Amino acid sequence: MSMQSQAVEAPSRDVFYRTEEIHAPSSTMLGFWIYLMSDCLIFACLFAAYGVLGHATAGGPGPKELFDLSLVALNTSMLLFSSITYGFAMLEMEKGRQEMTLVWLAITACFGLAFVGLELKEFGELITEGYGPWHSAFLSSFFALVGTHGLHVSVGLLWLGVLMVQVVNKGLIPENKRRLMCLSLFWHFLDVIWIGVFSFVYLMAVL
């Protein structure tokens, strides 16, 4: 009788999956830093390409004739403000204030969308005037560098939207805090890269 009892109870001791958290936060941050370093290499190559090809205008207009520094300055301010508001969101997250965290994330998203919109406006005007990436090596390298950065910002906005939904549904749980920290690193990284773009591509070329 006891052997039958053991046979019946045996399956209850089998474990088919783990229910506890096994994802180490430290490994996530280390992996994300490695990703950012690889992204630095991509932008370093694009900066180098622009440095080499920036004067190859194929007889067409150069940066001084094509770039609207006032529009670019406005665009830069949008991204800088978004970085500040994301910092406010992280401060509210550390205090455990979910609603205010979402408010600052939404403001960050608005600034990010304004940045992408102004960049698309600039690209659209250049292409409409016949100065697309096919026109010269200078414009090819310009569109590649600035467009790659804009693509990163667009992906960051998509990521931000997904995280906002997760915070609404699950709250400021440790997993969401870790994800928001990773996005914070990514967003500030894009801010630093854009300062390089603004200084090296726009400001130096125009001045």
UniProtKB/TrEMBL annotation:
It is found in: Cell membrane. It is a multi-pass membrane protein. The chain crosses the membrane at residues 32-52, 72-89, 101-118, 138-168, 180-205. The keyword Repressor does not apply. Pfam families: COX3. One of its GO terms (molecular function) is cytochrome-c oxidase activity. One of its GO terms (biological process) is aerobic electron transport chain. GO terms for cellular component: plasma membrane. It comes from the Bacteria. InterPro entries: Cyt_c/ubiquinol_Oxase_su3, Cyt_c_oxidase-like_su3, Cyt_c_oxidase_su3-like_sf, Cyt_c_oxidase_su3_a-hlx, Cyt_c_ubiqinol_oxidase_su3, Ubiquinol_oxase_su3_dom. The keyword Membrane applies. SUPFAM superfamilies: Cytochrome c oxidase subunit III-like. Residues 1-206 form the Heme-copper oxidase subunit III family profile domain. Keywords: Cell membrane, Electron transport, Membrane, Oxidoreductase, Transmembrane, Transmembrane helix, Transport. Heterooctamer of two A chains, two B chains, two C chains and two D chains. Belongs to the cytochrome c oxidase subunit 3 family. Cytochrome bo(3) ubiquinol terminal oxidase is the component of the aerobic respiratory chain of E.coli that predominates when cells are grown at high aeration. Has proton pump activity across the membrane in addition to electron transfer, pumping 2 protons/electron. PANTHER family: CYTOCHROME BO(3) UBIQUINOL OXIDASE SUBUNIT 3, CYTOCHROME C OXIDASE SUBUNIT III. This is Cytochrome bo(3) ubiquinol oxidase subunit 3.
